[in-house]
Amino acid sequence: MLDELLAARPDLRQPAEAYVAQVMAGADRSAVAGDVEDALLGLGIEELDTRAGYRPGRGYVHPAEAADEILDEALQPFRDDLHRRARLGMRSAATGLAAGILLGLYHCRHGNSETLLEYCPDYAAERASGVVSDCARLGIELPTDELLDLMPEWSAMLH
pTM for the complete prediction? Predict the structure, then answer.
């Protein structure tokens, strides 16, 4: 709906961008990080019951592959929102969202037993690398210095 409104009223783009930038300030970056972390850590291994093992028409699905797919489904709304904000020219909001996604993934980097991340030990780093690549492709400048302080184990990814 917002896309349609901004397409019909381009004069609202700048005020909308300013509002979203205000909403996506530092505290909200933490909220996004928490939402990403909750989405990924909230997926227990029982989720695999319907996705792993032999599946008619698909064959055998390894639990790690199924876990990866389920985790991607949980992360995808955040990535979709990032692309939408970039497409709408809301660069500062997209930057805040991207930083929040990266921080949430960083908090999930060690996985936890009894969660799907246990089956995909490199999931967080791999998806964070994808988010960094998306940002470069979309022209979103990440607050690298700030992120380096918050995510020291991923410094190579951020350079």
Answer: 0.83
